[in-house]
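so my prof wants the structure for this chain in the tokens format not the other one, which i didnt know existed until like an hour ago. anyway here's the sequence
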Amino acid sequence: MANSSPVVIVDSGGANLASLQHALHRLGAVAIVSSDAKIIERAPRIILPGVGAAAMAMERLSRAGLIDVLRSCTQPLLGICLGMQLLFEHSAEGDTPCLGLLPGHVHALTASTERPVPHMGWNTLGDSEHALVKDCAQQWFYFVHSYYVPGTSSSCIATTHYGLSIAAAVAVGNIMGVQCHPERSAHAGARLLKNFLDMPNPQAT
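here's what i got, hopefully its the right format
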């Protein structure tokens, strides 16, 4: 079964690593947390999670020697929350150069009386035909973020709304990302993670 293939969760130092690992285990996946470049290079699937600041996350990846590894991967790669934002060229958070795997920039959310920052809580995903978000349209997902990729991004495959259109999911080829936390999004999040586990791996023989 596709969802029994091993997954490597990049050790980005976030507090959500254990909950993400447990969510994958509940789906029958073998999931390990690692910052070892050789293990990540060989992984059939990679998940890049992230919480905290973009600059610190990029520094951690650099110290672990993972920048080039992630930039050259051909297997399915899923960025989650900050991990999704790191896939882009640049983040306004700390004026941080990112991985550049996807075109575009990450912007700061603007607070208002009706919409405080961070955007924290449950929101729905818009319609999409992409395999990553199959059967996820109009389902509720949990978000916590102060920065965002515009819904007009060329890589956007599903949007959510928080006073403006936000890229809730992005994808170009094997590079994918979600702004929400699927590991904290109950059945909808499990559906999305299973979709990722079912993605074909071009490295497989």
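also thought this was worth mentioning. The CA atoms of residues 71 and 101 lie 6 Å apart.
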